[in-house]
Amino acid sequence: MLVKDMRPMSMVDGEGFREMIRQFNPEYILPSRTHFTHLMEKKYEATLLKVKETIKEVKSALTLTADVWTSRATEAYLGVSCHFISDDWEMKTLNLATMPLEERHSGVNIMTWLEEVIAKYDILPTKIKAVVHDNGSNIVAAMRMLEEKHGWASVRCSGHTLQLIVNNALKEPSISRAVGAARHLPDQ
């Protein structure tokens, strides 16, 4: 008995698509799906190696930014970026990770994920001086643990803090009424 491949068939796997390509150019050989997967994997490995080499050559300290956020599709992610001053005194930023989070976003888990990201790039914990982050209780807890463990300074994002202040102020009835009245002023 023949067992049928259970993967969903994409448009490019369909005989109609293949026939259309043959009509356009009979000599063109349509690459397989695995061909493109292999190309992407090679590009990823080359880029990872290049980023590791760049970080290895940095003489200054590193700082990280970390943010846990949720997409419109309600999928959670951890974003991690690395910042440093180059030899010619330019600030450089490298995005190290945008990883999907399928486990609970506890302080312990966030701490572990941050340590996994720096390990992936061969960054010594002693090279990191600070991490900028939002005010979420889970990431604040993670930073407290990382500060104790590695001595990283925990820096709350001033932009995020300011946004929290503004949002809170807008809930004040007198301010809310004033904003509502201002919205009805003529544009002149």
TrEMBL record:
Question: What molecular functions are annotated in GO for this chain?
Answer: zinc ion binding
Q: Which GO terms describe its cellular component?
A: nucleus
Keywords from UniProt, A to Z, are: Metal-binding, Nucleus, Zinc, Zinc-finger
Query: Which InterPro entries does UniProt cross-reference here?
Result: RNaseH-like_sf, ZnF_BED_domain_contain
Domain of life, per lineage:
Eukaryota
Annotated compartments: Nucleus
Please give the SUPFAM superfamilies that the UniProt record associates with this protein: Hermes dimerisation domain, Ribonuclease H-like
The entry's protein name is Uncharacterized protein
